[in-house]
Amino acid sequence: MHRSDKKTLSTKNTRHPRFRRDDQNDNVMSSHSLFRKRSIMRLTFLILGLPLFLAACGSSEPPPPTTSQQRAADMAASDDVGDRFIHLRHAVSGESFAGFYAVSGQYTPQALDAVNRLLRDQRTGDVAQIDPKLLNFMVDVRRTLALPDDQPILVLSGYRTPRTGTSSTEGGRANLHHQGMAIDLQIAGHNSRTVAEVANTLQRGGVVYFPKTDHVHLDIGPPRYAEGK
Fold first, then answer.
1. Every domain of the chain and the residues it spans
2. Rg of the chain in Å (alpha carbons)
3. 200 vs 65, residue with greater confidence
4. Spelled out in words, what is the top-level CATH class assigned to the domain 67-227?
5. How does pLDDT run across 73-128, given as a tens digit for each residue?
6. Cα(146)–Cα(160) distance, integer angstroms
7. How many Cα neighbours within 13 Å face the side chain of 216?
């Protein structure tokens, strides 16, 4: 082969170094592009596919709480109650409850259920949820009077259904009895007027003193004080 032919052949088969660097850069860019595509695909799966995967696996959540448990949890979350002991005795049925209905700021569903039964409508037997704030109101009155925890509170009337009836002197107060937010009571050995006046200083709800029967109406409606007939 002639020398000039060898030179020509060598030139055709050898690329300039600058072109080789361009090829390497193209390969690097292709690798980066592929990595980005794979990252986007993984992210899309996490956003869209993972919830579907978890749903397909089923839920291991516990069953929903009962009404009393849910109410206790809701109340504990909104009201720092600490430890609360109450002693209730019903004047009509003779039944009583004495125990903690709240421990370390947590209401006890079993105790609330027992209170609900105790404060049922004595004429119809209907049981309703008694608002724990009403119990707190009574306990705070007892504490303000400096009475011991086991001091009995005599219940004259708790929950009442609309069927039981409403006296002409009660008006809107009866609606709070219908909602489990009111109670009529006495504290043995203590003048009910004094109990009513102490309860009114707390401004926790409505207070009505009835001089003829010497009993007190407490509710957790708007704070107010009145004297009944």
1. 3-57, 67-227
2. 38
3. 200
4. alpha beta
5. 454 444 567 999 999 999 999 999 999 999 999 999 999 999 999 999 999 999 99
6. 30
7. 26
